[in-house]
Structure formats: C-alpha cells, structure tokens
Amino acid sequence: MTIEERAEQAVALKNSSCNCCQAVLAALRDQTGLSEEQALMLASGFGAGMGSMEGSCGALVGAVTAAGLHLQGSGAPRTARKLSLAFKDACGAVACKDIKGVGTGQVLCSCDDCVRNAVMIYGRIMDLN
Fold it and tell me: In total, how many domains does the chain have?
C-alpha cells in the first residue's frame, strides 16, 4: 500500500469510527507491532486535541506514537521534532484549538487534512513507500 493510500485509509477511518489519533495510528499499525485493537485503545484518549482541544492535534500524536514504536525509542525525540515541525508547516499549528480556530474564528486545516498530512509526513520522514 502506498503512503497516499494509507493517508486516504486514515481519512476513511476518521470519518467512520475513529478519532484523529486512532485513524493515523491504525493506518500505520504495521509500523508499530500493535494489533488493531491495541492501536485503537492506545489512541482512544487523544481525540479532540488531547484534552478537549487544549493539547496537540490527535493526528500528530498518532504519527509520533507510530514513530516511537517503530524506532523502539531510539531517536524518537529527534523524529518527533521533525514530525511536529513538518506538521506545523503543513497545518499551520500543532495545537488542536489553534488549528480549529478557537478564539480566532479562522480554521487553518480540516481534520481530514490533518489526518492526511500526519500520515504523509510520517511516510516522508520515516522513508515509507
């Protein structure tokens, strides 16, 4: 499966039954060693920007989690920084409330595009074809 197909799979999951973090982590599950059930449970608390839009976008959290598991912790902080910076460039911010325009009224990126971008960025940084 191409990274583009994974990204669209993540969007479909997000639009059917998953929060943003679950969708990204499920689409990258083969990178993590997690079962589908484990991935969904692990990511279940990171919807709506981890803490009712106050924290990091769940899609970004899913990508960082997948990277940490794939790398088995080795180099994970450096990779998390790369993922975060690239995500901010693509989506305009990393905090859910900023992306969704809470306080400004200006939405920077749709949830579908956040999910899509998180998977695509993971693919680029982790050299996943």
Answer: 1
